[in-house]
Structures are given as C-alpha cells and as structure tokens.
C-alpha cells in the first residue's frame, strides 16, 4: 500500500486518471444495478392480482373452503328430505329359531318345550312428517309368515292396508323451529364460503408483500454492497492523496462488511418468503432447474374509488355470515325457551292406526274378506312434584335468551366499529401511499446527489451514510405503505362482501 501511495504522489496525473476511471466505473455500476445482478430469464413474473387468482383457484385453503361448502350443501339437502314423503321397506327374513323355551304348566310347574320355527315379516310403509303440528302420518302394508317345523304347518298374517298417525300433544315441536333455523344456517354457510375465499385473497396478499418486501430488501442490499465496494475503493485512493482521514476509511470499510452481512440475511429472508408463497399457492416447492423463481411486480399506486360508510355498513349487514348468524342465534335462544317451557309441563302423544287385517294358511287368505283393524293410544306424562326443577330449567333458558340478546347487541356494535375503522383506515392509507412514494423519489434523488458530492470530496462519510439510510428507509416505507393499503382493501371486501370499485355484491 505504501508503494502504491508513493507512486500516486510521484505521478499526480496518473493518480487523477485512476480516480476518474474508478469514479466512472462506480457510476456505471450504481446507475445500472440490473447489469451487475441480471434477472434470470426463467423467472416467473407475477402481479398481485395474478397471485390472488392463483390462491383462490388452486390453493389448499380454497379447496378446503369448497369442500366445507359442499358438506353444508348436502346437510341442507338432507334436512329438506326429512320433510318429503319417505318410502321404506323393513322386516326380518328369515327369523329362524330352534331351541327349548320355558313354558309354565297349569299346576304352576315349568316345562321346557322344544321349538323350531321361522317367523318372517315384511313391512312396506310410506310416511310423511307434518311440520305444522310436529307429528307424522303413514300408510303401511304388512305380511307375516310363521312356519312351525315341529307340527309341519304354515300360517300367514298380514295388514293389506293401514293408515296411522303419531301426534305429540302440548309438546315442543322441533320441526317447526328447524324450518326457520336451517335455511338461515345454510345461507350462513354460503356467505362463509365467500368469506373464506376473501380470506384466501387477504392471506395471499400478505404473503405476496412479505416476498415483495424481501425482494426489495435484497435489491437494496445488493445495490448497497456494490456501492460500498466502489466507494471504499475510491476512499482508499483519497486516503493516499491525503483527502480523507483514516477514520472515515475505516467507517466505509465497516459499511462494506455490514452491507455483505445484510445481503446474506436478505437472501435467506427472500428464500423463506418465496417458499411460503409457493407452498400457499400449491406450487412445486422442490429446488431444482424445473422450479422457476418468483419475480413480483410492485403494484402501481392505489385504486381510486370512494367508500360511503353507511353503504359499507348496510352491505355488511346484508351480506356477511355474521349478520345471518345474529338472526339464527336469536331464533335458537327463542327455541330453547319454548323447549324448556313445554317439555316441563303436560306431555302427551296420540297414536292411532286404522286399517284391515286377516290371517290364513295361504298368502291369498290375507286379502280375502279382511277384518277391520283399529288401534288408538294416548300416552301422557304429568309432572306432579319436581321440587322446582321445571321452573329452574325454564328460568335458565330465559336467562340464556337474555344473554344471547345482549351478546348479539354487543357483536353488532363491534361489527359496525370494524367497518367504520376499516373505511377510515383505507382512505388514510391511500394518502399514505402517495406521500411515501413522493418521499421515496426525493430520497433516491438526494442519495444520487450525495454520491456525487462524496466523489468530489464535498461530503463527509457520515453524511453519505445518513443519505444511504434515508434512501433505504424511504424505499421500504413506500413498499410497506402499499402492503398496508392492499391488506386494508381486501379486509374491507372481507368485512362487507362487496366490491366498492365495481359497486356489486361478491358472489
């Protein structure tokens, strides 16, 4: 180093020429960072909209939401089927028995008699629930055959036609409440599916900007490393000319080391963020020549549309599953009160059956001149002394109903507050994006001027470091402001299920 310094002192013209060449070389490197680190041609360039669409169509989260929605659809179909006529065939064929059975004799003794028979039964029934009353009506046809293998005879018994009714009296009717609650539950599940897709969009946006911020930090680190290497080389020659102190040189050398450390850390962070986004989008995550790296595009500004607060609240209460859940929870609380009140009083059930029946040695005998068949039964339970259990159950249900009403009211207030906060936040973040973009341009221009002044020995190393920090901070702030805006944009869509840009409901 001493020999080189002496040569510079002896030949000032050559020294000035070397400095000029180094300055020009540094200017070229800093002016065209893409030439120092070219982007691979095989990189997969993606915009924010493309990443969101990929996540909504092929991510595991979107497929889980679709599967859950399909499950809820078939649950609702099963509920609807319960209110339609049901045709069923049941029976036992064969029902063979060979054993000894206990038979009490006239004198009170017990004898064990051998039995060997087959008692087969077929029953065809058409039933229909009655949601209005909670009962059910049915029509049936039944045929029974009994074979006694010991006596070698066969008998037939049957019901050619019968109509029956089973009707609870003074009791809780679950079918009436199910017809009011289950459609709301199904509508709630439909809106939950749309919300799940919007949540996928929101999650994909977060992962997109995590990688974008990491890539911007990586670009900053690469540029700073190249710039610090060049400036350190220039500073060595300035030290040789006596135009720079050794303390400033050491400070620049420390900046070089920090830049290299930051570059290694930025690379690792970018790789981790890329892996997370690739995994969420359900793309290939194996490393190799077949996997194309991501190159994300910085979104151009923000969307220019106005959001009316009252309209946002109306759309949220009209579209969100939470708003439907408020109605469902209220009905469920009312249902539980009625259940506790009616099940604690007189409970009765009327069972009636009217039809034709007959028996014979042949199947045709069952249908020849059948006899009338009637069956009427009234079952009831009347609580006489329960030590206040019925009242306690009823009052507990009423207290839970009041608690549900209060919880729903609080949830509505919180719901409105979320909408208000998000609408005002979106407008504030839109302004923030514009301000940080302007600050980024100013900081980049100031850094270029600081570089030129340092080359001309008109700026200290400390001031150059401050300009570098301001430049990096401004670029990161601009990207973070974009991230906050787009997250707020998709959060508002999630909370309202409404697209304010196109003024239409999300389906």
TrEMBL record:
<dbReference type="GO" id="GO:0015562">
    <property type="term" value="F:efflux transmembrane transporter activity"/>
</dbReference>
<keyword id="KW-1134">Transmembrane beta strand</keyword>
<dbReference type="GO" id="GO:1990281">
    <property type="term" value="C:efflux pump complex"/>
</dbReference>
<dbReference type="GO" id="GO:0009279">
    <property type="term" value="C:cell outer membrane"/>
</dbReference>
<protein>
    <submittedName>
        <fullName>Outer membrane protein-like protein</fullName>
    </submittedName>
</protein>
<keyword id="KW-0813">Transport</keyword>
<dbReference type="GO" id="GO:0015288">
    <property type="term" value="F:porin activity"/>
</dbReference>
<feature type="transmembrane region" description="Helical">
    <location>
        <begin position="16"/>
        <end position="36"/>
    </location>
</feature>
<dbReference type="InterPro" id="IPR051906">
    <property type="entry name" value="TolC-like"/>
</dbReference>
<keyword id="KW-0812">Transmembrane</keyword>
<dbReference type="InterPro" id="IPR003423">
    <property type="entry name" value="OMP_efflux"/>
</dbReference>
<keyword id="KW-0998">Cell outer membrane</keyword>
<keyword id="KW-1133">Transmembrane helix</keyword>
<keyword id="KW-0472">Membrane</keyword>
<comment type="similarity">
    <text>Belongs to the outer membrane factor (OMF) (TC 1.B.17) family.</text>
</comment>
<dbReference type="Pfam" id="PF02321">
    <property type="entry name" value="OEP"/>
</dbReference>
């Amino acid at each position: 180093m001493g020999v080189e310094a002496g040569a510079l002192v002896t030949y000032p013209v050559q020294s000035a020429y070397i400095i000029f060449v180094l300055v020009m070389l540094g200017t070229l490197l800093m002016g065209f960072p893409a030439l120092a680190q070219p982007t691979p041609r095989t990189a997969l360039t993606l915009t924010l909209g493309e990443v969101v669409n990929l996540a909504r169509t092929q991510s595991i989260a979107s497929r889980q939401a679709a599967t859950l929605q399909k499950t809820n659809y078939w649950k609702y179909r099963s509920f609807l089927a319960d209110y339609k006529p049901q045709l069923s065939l049941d029976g036992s064929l064969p029902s063979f028995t060979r054993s000894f059975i206990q038979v009490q004799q006239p004198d009170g003794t017990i004898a064990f008699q051998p039995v060997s028979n087959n008692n087969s039964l077929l029953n065809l029934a058409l039933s229909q629930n009655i949601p209005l009353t909670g009962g059910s009506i049915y029509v049936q046809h039944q045929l029974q055959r009994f074979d006694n293998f010991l006596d070698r005879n066969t008998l037939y018994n049957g019901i050619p036609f019968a109509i029956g009714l089973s009707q609870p009296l003074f009791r809780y009717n679950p079918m009436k409440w199910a017809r009011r609650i289950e459609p709301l539950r199904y509508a709630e599940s439909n809106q939950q599916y749309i919300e799940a897709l919007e949540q996928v969009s929101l999650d994909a946006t977060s992962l997109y900007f995590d990688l974008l911020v990491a890539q911007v930090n990586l670009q900053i680190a690469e540029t700073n490393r190249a710039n610090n290497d060049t400036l350190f080389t220039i500073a060595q020659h300035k030290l040789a000319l006596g135009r720079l102190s050794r303390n400033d040189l050491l400070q620049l050398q420390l900046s070089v080391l920090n830049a290299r450390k930051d570059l290694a850390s930025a690379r690792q962070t970018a790789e981790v963020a890329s892996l997370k986004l690739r995994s969420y989008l359900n793309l290939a995550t194996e490393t190799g020549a077949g996997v194309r790296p991501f190159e994300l595009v910085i979104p151009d500004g923000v969307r220019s549309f106005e959001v009316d607060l009252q309209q946002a609240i109306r759309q949220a209460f009209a579209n969100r599953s939470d708003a439907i859940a408020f109605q469902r929870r209220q009905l469920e609380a009312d249902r539980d009160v009625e259940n506790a009140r009616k099940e604690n009083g007189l409970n009765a059930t009327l069972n009636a059956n009217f039809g034709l029946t007959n028996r014979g040695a042949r199947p045709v005998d069952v249908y020849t001149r059948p006899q009338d068949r009637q069956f009427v039964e009234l079952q009831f339970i009347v609580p006489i002394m329960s030590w206040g259990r019925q009242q306690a159950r009823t009052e507990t249900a009423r207290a839970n109903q009041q608690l549900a009403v209060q919880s729903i009211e609080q949830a509505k207030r919180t719901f409105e507050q979320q909408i208000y906060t998000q609408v005002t936040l979106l407008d504030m973040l839109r302004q923030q994006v514009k301000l940080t973009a302007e600050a980024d341009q100013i900081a980049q221009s100031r850094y270029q001027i600081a570089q030129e002044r340092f080359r001309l020995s008109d700026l200290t190393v400390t001031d150059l470091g401050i300009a570098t920090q301001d430049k990096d901070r401004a670029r990161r702030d601009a990207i973070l402001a974009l991230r906050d805006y787009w997250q707020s944009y998709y959060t508002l869509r999630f909370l309202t299920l409404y697209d304010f840009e196109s003024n239409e409901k999300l389906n």
